Amino acid sequence: DGIRDRSPSRGLGDVYKRQVLGNALLDYYLKVKMINRTLRNATEYGCLTGEGWVHLPWAPKAGNVYEIKDGKPVYEGDLEVSHHNGLDVIRDTFIRSMSHKWLCVREWKNKWDLVAQYPEMRDQILAESIYDYEGYESFRFEVTKGIEDTESEKIPVYTFYHDRTESVPEGRLVRFSKSVMYYDGALPYQSLPIKNVLPDVLHESGFGYSPFNDLLGIQQAKDNVISAVTSNNLTFANQFIWKRKNDNFSVKNIEGGLKLLESAEVPQALQLTASSPESYNLYNLYEGAMEMLSGISSTVRGNPQTNLKSGAALALVVAQSIQFGSGLEESFNQVLEDSGTTVIQHLQDFAKTPRIAYIVGESNRPFMKEYTSKDISDIKRVTVQQTNALAKTISGRLEIANQIMQMPPEQAQVYMSILNLSLIHISEPTRRTPISYAVFCL
Asked: Which end of the chain is more exposed for a tag (fewer CB within 10 A), N or C?
């Protein structure tokens, strides 16, 4: 199959091959199908609005054409991935946790694409309009404000998912718009194909919350201070000169562009652009408060404080900032695992026709391999291994390198194991079995 069986038993070799194939498929969907970009967009929604959602349904009429049957193309089918904000996901507002038994997703679809998929409903689909729905706006920039888009070809299509419960043992999937029912049947997926990215959760509710909301009031006050200082400078940018009334004051030009002022007393300049020192102190106070609430220090922004000189101090500050965002990072890792597991599950359930996978084998040599759902049938879930926060930054990596260069090789290995929060195995010369030390970070 292009992959050497390096395990002592053939069964383990098959497991290794399935892992390689599964990793290749995940890499393909993350990079080529751009699921990674979708996840980042959902994460951005989570930071801005408190919730970001990823929708990963299976589209039977997507992918390449497998064959022509009765004059009609038969498609391989593929995932259709999209990201959404909290307003696009309808849920039970009375629950007190994020454990949703049902969800309804709103998507904007082109009417002509829907007509191509459901030709028997052509008249009903074309009769719908975007203005048939109240409050169709979502989180978006109104770059066409004032322009009527009554001729828009987009209409909202809703997909309702109900998980398998005692009252609905087979689950349910309903796809509909205002006057058209596209599908109504049992849930064909192993789990609900909609995942969320939540920086935090509103306690006792089914809604997410973004810690960046805490910065809005301070940011508004900071903007007002900047606006006052800027307005003062723009208004009084031209300098004024004061003199006594009825004073004999004259100005004469001198050769070379100089000017001669003649008056009984020295005139005084009015520095109306001078802002109060309290304004700048207040600005710095607001900035410090925002750094504390967000965990984004000046060091992370590339402008470290003057009292931070050593690489260890800089690395510590950066690590603290990364640790502050651990909740969002944990949520992103979770949605990454859930999305990867959903990709594998969809391919197991629906990829019945032979497909081609692009795999990088030993020594980074790529090759093509044909596969079906049976080749990945034993993969149960996808996990994400989180790297150390300190190693994600340049200053952190430099500090780690400096520490390792001063250590013996055996100590360097232990040092890296502690950073990676892994299980350390140390062999003593007087023992035949290694001693294991479990290292945890709380």
From this structure: C
225 pLDDT band, cuts 50/70/90, is confident
Task: Output 318 or 74, whichever has higher pLDDT.
Answer: 74
Instruction: Determine contact, residues 89/105, Cβ cutoff 8 Å.
Output: yes
Residue 34 CA to residue 408 CA, distance in Å, equals 43
265 with 271: CB under 8 angstroms? no
d(CA 197, CA 325): 13
Of 118-122, 178-182, 217-221, 363-367, the poorest mean pLDDT is in 363-367
In SS3 terms, 242-295 reads as ECCCCCCCEEEEECCCEEEEECCCCCEEECCCCCCHHHHHHHHHHHHHHHHHHC
Give how far Cα 358 sits from Cα of 68, 177, 341, Å: 25, 38, 19
- Pick from 175, 136, 141: nearest CA to 152: 136
Q: 56-65, 150-159, 199-208, 241-250: which range is least confident on average?
A: 241-250
Q: Residue 169 pairs with which residues in a beta bridge?
A: none
Answer yes or no: are the C-beta atoms of 83 and 47 closer than 8 Å. Answer: no
Amino acid occupying residue 255: E
Give the residue from 195, 189, 157 showing the smallest Cα distance to 172: 189
Please give the full DSSP string across 152-171, using - where no structure is assigned: --EEEEEEEEE---SSSTT-
Nearest to 420 by CA among 399, 394, 439: 439
pLDDT at 6: 40
Q: Which residue, chain included where needed, has tokens 């359930």?
A: 349
% of the chain with per-residue pLDDT over 90: 15
Tokens of 198: 């939540």
Cβ atoms of 299 and 318 within 8 Å: the answer is yes
Rounded Cα distance between 347 and 132, Å, is 37
- Locate tokens 């922004």: which residue? 301
Please answer whether residues 104 and 72 qualify as being in contact, where contact means their C-beta atoms are separated by less than 8 angstroms.
no
